[in-house]
UniProtKB/TrEMBL annotation:
Residues 9-62 form the HTH cro/C1-type domain. Pfam families: HTH_3. This is Helix-turn-helix domain-containing protein. InterPro entries: Cro/C1-type_HTH, Lambda_DNA-bd_dom_sf. PROSITE patterns: HTH_CROC1.
Amino acid sequence: MHGSLLEQIKKRRKSRGLRQEDLALSIGMSRQQFQRTEAGGNPRLDTLELIAAGLQCELLLVPRPLVDAVGQLERGELIYETVEDPWGEFLADCEDDDDG
């Protein structure tokens, strides 16, 4: 589980080395309003979008089957298999068809 959205906001703010006051000022919000929000307030969607933008993030709805993959990606654990020439096999099949 990735924790609540407000916990994620606090974690992201701290990872960026920002104090509550720093982030609040950067997004045009009072320090008190930001403190209430981060401490468990019930912010409006536009407030969450503003905070996310200040943290260089986007709010995103993730389908439940993909939540684990997003967490792995976020932690740098998701490994992609790279294919040198993704079209090579397909094009080779097409060339074989032309010979027939």
